[in-house]
């Protein structure tokens, strides 16, 4: 069912959002175990394989690889950061619903966040091919489509007028950007404490 909705959101997002809304919510355990845990594995695993097996070359310079000892904790930390970010954004969506007069459950907000971020998770597979410009293009394209799904889905899924839906969606984008900046700051702090990558 999730896979059908995923492809439906690519071909006809407006109709698919309506169908997802009619289905109702699911349990937090079900949403996390069946969808979030698996989707969040794609970027860390792909980048782990790409950086340890293929290596990176920026602007045609020498190929650089990460050592296994440093790549494993980075991949694990990235995985849990993705899950925490997903839960944080979902909670913020749930909290903001009251401001916009929407009554929905945290489970529905979690599923909405998972659906809108699915293109970003799937784009993580490009990490298997560590070509910087290609990775940037693919991830930016996926981010643009996730934002499109967000703006098109909020009015339909939350059942609010489009004007309020635009403001709601913009608030969600702001929360997502703040979460991203927070993760980057934590990464810099951890690297400063000596937990950075080791190149070979």
Explain how this protein is built:
- By secondary structure, the chain is mainly α.
- The chain has one domain.
- It is 78% helix and 0% strand.
- The protein is elongated and about 55 Å long.
Helical fraction equals over 70%
Number of strands: 0
Radius of gyration: 18 Å
- Outline the biggest β-sheet: none
Which percent band covers the strand fraction? under 5%
What is the ordering of alpha helices and beta strands?
A: HHHHHHHH
Counted by DSSP, the helix tally is 8
Broad structural category: mainly alpha
Taken together, the total number of domains comes to: 1
Query: Roughly how many Å apart are the termini?
Result: 43 Å
Question: Low-confidence stretches at least 5 residues in length (pLDDT < 50)?
Answer: none
Kindly state the mean pLDDT as a whole number? 86
Spatial shape: elongated
List key phrases describing it.
membrane; transmembrane; 8 helices; 200 residues; Yip1 domain-containing protein; mainly alpha; 78% helix
What's the gist of this structure?
78% of the residues lie in helices and 0% in strands. The chain is mainly α and 200 residues long. The radius of gyration is 18 Å and the shape is elongated.
Can you lay out the helices and strands and say which pair or pack?
Blueprint: H1 2-11, H2 13-23, H3 28-39, H4 42-54, H5 68-99, H6 106-123, H7 132-158, H8 162-195
Helix pairs in contact: 1-2, 2-7, 3-6, 4-5, 5-6, 5-8, 6-7, 7-8
């Amino acid at each position: 069912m999730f896979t059908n909705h995923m492809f439906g959101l690519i071909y006809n997002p407006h109709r698919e959002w309506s169908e997802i809304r009619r289905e109702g919510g699911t349990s937090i355990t079900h949403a996390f175990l069946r969808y979030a845990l698996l989707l969040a594995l794609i970027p860390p695993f792909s980048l782990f394989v790409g950086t340890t097996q293929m290596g990176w070359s920026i602007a045609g310079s020498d190929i650089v690889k990460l050592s296994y000892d440093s790549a494993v904790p980075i991949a694990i930390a990235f995985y849990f950061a993705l899950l925490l970010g997903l839960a944080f954004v979902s909670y913020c969506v749930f909290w903001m619903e009251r401001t916009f007069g929407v009554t929905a459950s945290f489970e529905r907000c979690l599923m909405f966040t998972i659906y809108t971020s699915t293109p970003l998770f799937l784009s993580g597979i490009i990490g298997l091919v560590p070509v910087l410009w290609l990775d940037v293009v693919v991830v930016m394209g996926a981010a643009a489509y996730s934002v499109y799904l967000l703006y098109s889905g909020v009015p339909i899924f939350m059942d609010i007028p489009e004007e309020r839906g635009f403001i709601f969606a913009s608030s969600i984008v702001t929360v997502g950007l703040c979460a991203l900046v927070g993760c980057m700051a934590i990464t810099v702090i951890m690297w400063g404490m000596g937990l950075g990558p080791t190149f070979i």
